[in-house]
Amino acid sequence: METEVTFRIATEKDLDRIVEMLADDVLGSQRERYEHPLPESYHKAFLAIETDPNNELVVACHNDEIIGVQQITFTPYLTHQGSWRATIEGVRTSSSVRGKGVGTELIRWGIQRAKERGCHLVQLTTDKKREDALRFYEKLGFHATHEGMKLKL
Questions:
Q1: What does the mean pLDDT of the chain come to?
Q2: CATH class of the structural domain 6-139
């Protein structure tokens, strides 16, 4: 980015813009409901994230405009000698800044935040259909070391 990108914890006032970004791609448009007013489920989820000390919803800003978002969850584990790990999810950048380095800055910020919280590992998942995202994360040093599985309820 030509101008500095700043990062901060999201507030409920940011929720509309966050959901707009989550819905602004092929997969997101199929699973998100970006409408006015937003469905109450988004507000409930935001409140749960906001009040959980082990969850952070982080926005990337250029001036006053939100141009990126990610959720970081910090989880204690008994494995790896009782260490903590960070999971990065829900990463999106505004379509107006894709390919301009904002995503890279966002993930690097998340990695630094994980270090500050004493995590030994940062993990994330991305849909296998998102081939560009897979390449993006690999360029940032992530490796597909495990096969992830999900059960939709």
A1: 92
A2: alpha beta
